[in-house]
């Protein structure tokens, strides 16, 4: 069983819709929870990170972490065609040198 | 400020040959990580340098892989001899050192194809 599970998609939504992404994990030692965006032939780019449980909002993006359920989410409001990309969840623990454990990524397509 | 750079962007080699990948981290970043994405799988950790020292190499697949970081600056990852299953995209990331969370900045990756 993978440490981090993420639905591969693809997830296709019309422009302006809310995109909802999530990951589940098994390692309770994870402290930091990240969402990366990756465009084709590019490296992952950090969107948001959250420490421990809670919500965090940044513009159109909201990240949620529920450590009791080992479940994290990312919501993208008012989605744009430029949001079309692969979204990767990643997690880390300070004691493990902050090495990242990734989900497999979800492909998102926002149609104009 | 320049980001993390990797060279080459793409390498195609025959099974049994040697390939060396290079990563130049962001200046001043003590932490350097190597990751790999094999087709159809998630990105996986390979190893972590702090300056020139290997902090964690638990993700290195086998002894055909050798990573170095000269003087705590750029890093190389050598695969010798390459096998078919080594094909994938190799990412390098760097971060600062400090308490708590430090963002890892990723390079564009090196796409390795072993024929």
What does the model show?
The complex is a heterodimer of chains A (112) and B (115). With 112 residues, chain A is mostly beta strands. Chain A has no helices and 11 strands. In chain A, strands 2, 4, 5, 9, 10 and 11 form a 6-stranded mixed sheet that branches. Chain A has a 5-stranded antiparallel sheet with strand order 1-3-8-7-6, with no helix packed on it. Chain A is globular. By secondary structure, chain B is an all-beta fold. Chain B contains no helices and 11 strands. In chain B, the strands form 2 sheets. In chain B, strands 2, 4, 5, 6, 9, 10 and 11 form a 7-stranded mixed sheet that branches. In chain B, strands 1-3-8-7 form a 4-stranded antiparallel sheet, with no helix packed on it. In chain B, a hairpin with a 5-residue loop joins strand 7 (65-69) and strand 8. Chain B starts with a strand and ends with a strand. The interface between A and B is medium-sized, with 26 and 27 residues.
Element layout with pairings:
The complex is a heterodimer of chains A (112) and B (115).
Chain A: E1 4-6, E2 11-14, E3 19-25, E4 32-38, E5 45-51, E6 54-58, E7 61-66, E8 71-76, E9 85-92, E10 101-102, E11 106-111
Parallel strand pairs in A: 2-11
Antiparallel strand pairs in A: 1-3, 3-8, 4-5, 4-9, 6-7, 7-8, 9-10, 9-11
Chain B: E1 5-7, E2 10-13, E3 19-24, E4 31-37, E5 43-50, E6 53-56, E7 65-69, E8 75-79, E9 88-95, E10 105-106, E11 110-114
Keywords:
heterodimer; A: 112 residues; 5-stranded antiparallel β-sheet; 11 strands; globular; B: 115 residues; 4-stranded antiparallel β-sheet
Q: What is the 3D shape of chain B?
A: globular
Strand content of chain A: over 45%
- The radius of gyration of chain B is 13 Å
Average pLDDT number of chain B: 95
Shape descriptor of chain A: globular
Largest β-sheet summary of chain B: 7 strands, mixed
Total helix count of chain B?
A: 0
Output mean pLDDT of chain A: 95
Structural class of chain A: mainly beta
């Amino acid at each position: 069983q993978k440490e981090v599970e993420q639905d591969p998609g693809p997830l296709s939504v019309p422009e302006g819709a809310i995109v909802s992404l999530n990951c589940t994990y098994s390692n309770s030692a994870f402290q930091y929870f990240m969402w990366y965006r990756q465009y084709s032939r590019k490296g992952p780019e950090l969107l948001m990170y959250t420490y421990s449980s809670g919500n965090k909002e940044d513009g159109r993006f909201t990240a949620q972490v529920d450590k009791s359920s080992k479940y994290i989410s990312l919501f993208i409001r008012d989605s744009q065609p430029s949001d079309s990309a692969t979204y990767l969840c990643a997690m880390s623990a300070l004691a493990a040198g902050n090495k990242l454990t990734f989900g497999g990524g979800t492909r998102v397509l926002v149609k104009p | 400020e320049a980001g993390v750079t990797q060279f080459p962007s793409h390498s195609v080699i025959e099974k049994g040959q040697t390939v060396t990948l290079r990563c130049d981290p962001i200046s001043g970043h003590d932490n350097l990580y190597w990751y790999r994405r094999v087709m159809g799988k998630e990105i996986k950790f390979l190893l972590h340098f702090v300056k020139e020292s290997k902090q964690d190499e638990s993700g290195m697949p086998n002894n055909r892989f050798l990573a170095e970081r000269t003087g705590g600056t750029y890093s190389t990852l050598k695969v010798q001899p390459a096998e078919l299953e080594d094909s994938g995209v190799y990412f390098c990331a760097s971060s600062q050192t400090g308490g708590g969370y430090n963002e890892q900045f990723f390079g564009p990756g090196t796409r390795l194809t072993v024929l």
